[in-house]
Amino acid sequence: MSLELIGICVLWAFLFGYVIIASIDFGAGFYNAYSVLTNRSDVLSDVIKRYLSPVWEVTNVFLVFFFVGMVGFFPQTAFYYGTILLVPVSISLILLSIRGAYYAFESYGMAGHKGYATAYGLAGLLIPASFSVVFTISEGGFVEMVNNYPQLNYKALFTSPLTWSIVVLSIVAVLYISAVFLTWYAHKARDHKASNLMRKFALIWSAPLAISAVGIIIEFRGHNPFRFEKMVSVWWLFAISAILFFVTTWLLWMKRNYGMMVILLFSQFALAFFAYGISHYPYLLYPYLTIHDSFTNKEMAIALIIVFILGAALLIPSLILLFKLFVFNKDYVRGIHDEHV
Amino acid sequence: MINDSAVFWSRILTEVTLSFHIIYATIGVGVPILIMIAQWIGIKNNDEHYILMARRWARGFVITVAVGVVTGTVIGLQLSLLWPNFMQVAGQLIALPLFMETFAFFFEAIFLGIYLYTWDRFENQKKHMLLLIPVAIGASMSAVFITVLNAFMNAPQGFDIVDGQLINIQPLVAMFNPAMPTKVAHVLLTAYMTCAFLLASIAAYRLLRGSTHEYHKKSLYLLMKLGFIFAVATAIVGDFSGKYLAEYQPEKLAAAEWHFETAPNAPLVLFGVLDDGEVKYALKIPFALSILAHNNPTAEVIGLDQFPVDEHPPYYIHYLFDGMVMIGMFMVALSLIYLLALWRDWTFIQTKWFRWIVVAGGPLSVIAIELGWWLAEVGRQPWLLRGIMRTEQGATTSEYVDLMLILFSGLYFILAVGSILALQRMFKNNPIENEIARRKERDFV
Fold first, then answer.
1. What residues does each domain of chain B span?
2. In chain B, which residues have their Cβ closer than 8 Å to the Cβ of A299?
3. Does A124 lie at the interface with B, CB-CB under 8 angstroms?
4. What digits encode the pLDDT tens for the residues A152-201?
5. How far from the centroid of its chain's Cα atoms is residue B37's Cα?
6. What's the pLDDT tens digit per position in B77-120?
7. Is the pLDDT of residue B189 over 70?
8. Which residues of chain A are within 8 Å of residue B109 when distances are taken between CB atoms?
9. Would you give the distance in Å from CA B110 to the centre of its chain?
10. Which residues contact B292 (CB under 8 A, 6 or more apart)?
11. pLDDT, tens only, A84-135
12. Domain total for chain A?
């Protein structure tokens, strides 16, 4: 396996980690805002807060890890993506900042403040929408080279149906992932009222998720035949992902085996995410940038991989400890302890 | 292709982001250590006040750390968004410490989460305190790695340029560049110092507002003592920084000190104004610049005359330097006087005016941090990578940077207001007297 392939696999895995954790986080923020605004915070807020509180900062680190690693392993992405993404990513950053900071302000300083809760709930939904534009841009067709510098064609981007179908998919996926996860989490917390409510949300969002996913595949066909071909070549991965989706929804419908359901949920998205990633290979930005021509020098690559291995040796046990103490700690999940500082 | 307006606005936006982020970043680096010291004293002396001190600081810390994290994410991405041409080159040379920083940050984030949510979960308080060690190490190491990157921009090494190609890249040599030791030490110590004086200023303020609780007095004493130690250490490292500059970046030192002509027996110029290239109304300390630069009153110090005019940093950095050093000296003196007075039983430190000065010490230290970073960054101009890449070569070519400046300025305003309101509400609703009373009640039950 070449160094650049190792690099991109690690980064893609971290991005997947971010997508899942952040989806749970953003969706939870939205459901929390919804329950605060409809004066039903007694049902949901507790269980959502208990999950989110100790892990929110960790979510952000996954994102930072991804983009720092990207610039490290593939420095040319800084030039291409840095230049064209100024506006879209700045908007994501502003939303992300409001979301992260106001989450903390509301939780620790002003519990139950409607304005603060709404601010971070809404910002959370817009973040995936704005980040998803990066995927769209990477498909090619929206960037031109002018005097050897890349330029983003905003008009083409914002009038493309592909853009908007990816935006819709990202929002629906966030709401679905989060609802399924929280159904299980609330169930574990023996909070059946909250669990049933989240189950309802999860079922509501399952149909739009399926429709928007299929819609994107159709959009792709018209947008970029070459990329569409590549996607079709890994059709079986997408097919397994679709089957897992149906099993997940079925378990949810039958109220059965929620633990298994969450594992299937993650597998479903992992398969789809990696299938998409494989179909994207070797392009980072179609057709200008591949992982081969943008790769850093060998010395730096080896240094980064060594640091990654050492860092992982430090982080994985720490993450396991974090999850053992909170997400997988029965007493904590059920709210028996309140040991916040 | 250089887009002049994009260069200009990129510089302003980076300056605004860094100036805002550095306040919260400094708190993020310094406060964990202070929490640890307070909790340790509390456990050792079995004194509940110190434990509560740790607990209350940790509570406030959550708010500031949230802003630190999000603005840190912002600057992390803005490096690529505003300086894509720079990051493309820097990525090949100095990505290693940036990557390490994410691990340090990761480590800190995990244990901070655990620490905050496990108060009273452990039978043995010491075990809980141990959780802070990775937080403090992670926080300080984040600062170390980021400062390494900044040091590299001042003293790039660890590669060769042949025909415009970067070759012989040595990531570790790039990290351990000559600017690194003094810069790292300076950043860490000033962060600890600033946090000590910031928290001291809160304690002094509570005392001024009529609280006579033992808690605030203990906290003030502890913080002034720590602040003094860190401030003296900062001054010592500052002296080493002068020697580093004289050796490796003489133009930066010369511009900061208004030392135009290369000469021996160089005096240190304080304040003054520049009138047609001449220094007027300045306070000159004989031989001091030669001592600062070379530990020798008669040593020759390189002046700006050795550098082409288009490579001179802006001369106004002189005032940034003076302001930073004056505040630093003032804080050393203030904390020393406070400690002496406690020792000799002088009572003037309990007067209102003295406490107001202590209150001012916190914000003043933050101003010194800002001045220091402006000096570091503006003093490197016109270079982004000294001697290799000029600032305008590194900037983005895209449009709308000015619009982004407006959006981000609005964001920082919202974050500043939100964090201040949240902190205010957190502590106003729960003054120390109430918290102690509540704990007593609970223990009684």
1. 1-179+391-445, 186-248+250-379
2. 169-171
3. no
4. 889 989 998 889 989 999 999 999 999 999 999 888 888 888 888 889 99
5. 20
6. 999 999 999 999 999 999 999 999 999 988 888 888 888 888 87
7. yes
8. 57-58, 60-61
9. 23
10. B239, B242, B243, B246, B268
11. 999 999 999 999 998 888 888 877 766 667 787 888 888 889 999 999 999 9
12. 1
- Give the alpha-carbon dihedral of A293, A295, A299, A303, to 10 degrees: -170
Give domain status of residue A72, yes or no.
Answer: yes
d(CA B96, CA A72): 7
Q: How far apart are CA B140 and CA A304, in angstroms?
A: 21
Question: How many Cβ atoms from other residues are within 10 Å of residue A135's Cβ?
Answer: 15
**How far apart are alpha carbons B421 and A170 in whole angstroms?**
33
Contact map slice: B 38-57 vs A, CB within 8 A: 55
In contact, A108 and A157? CB cutoff 8 Å: no
A109 touches B: beta carbon within 8 Å = yes
**Which of A203-207, A281-285, B151-155 is predicted least confidently?**
A281-285
Return the sign of the alpha-carbon dihedral for residues A282, A287, A293, A295: negative
What is the span of the domain harbouring residue A222?
3-333
Chain A hits for B95, CB-CB cut-off 8 Å, are 68, 71-73, 75, 296, 300, 304
Residue A81, CA atoms < 13 Å, CB-side half-sphere? 30
ipTM over 0.90: no
Are B131 and B118 contacting, i.e. CB atoms less than 8 angstroms apart? yes
The answer, for B106 touching chain A at a CB cutoff of 8 Å, is yes
Give dist(CA A269, CA A303) in Å, integer: 31
In a domain, residue A340? The reply is no
**B444: its two tokens:** 């009684």
Residues 6+ apart with CB under 8 A from B438: none
Q: Per the domain annotation, does A291 fall within a domain?
A: yes
Q: How many alpha carbons lie under 13 Å from residue A210 in its C-beta half-sphere?
A: 13
Structure tokens at B372: 């220091």
For residues B369 and B27, give the distance between their C-alpha atoms in angstroms, rounded to a whole number.
11
Q: Is residue A184 part of a domain?
A: yes
Q: What residue type is assigned to position B399 of the chain?
A: E
Segments of B79-208 assigned E as strands? 160-162, 165-167
| 3-state class (DSSP) for residue B284 | strand
Taking a C-beta distance cutoff of 8 angstroms, is the pair A162, A139 a contact?
Answer: yes
